[in-house]
Amino acid sequence: MVEVPIPKDITKFKPTLIGPFTTRQVVCGCIAATVDYLIFKIISISNISITLDTLIGIEVLFAAPILAFSIIFPYDMPLEKFLKNVFLLSFIAPKTRVYEINNFFAPEQIQEQRTNKKKKKFSNSELKKHPDYVLYE
Question: Residue ranges per domain, the chain?
Answer without folding.
Answer: 15-92
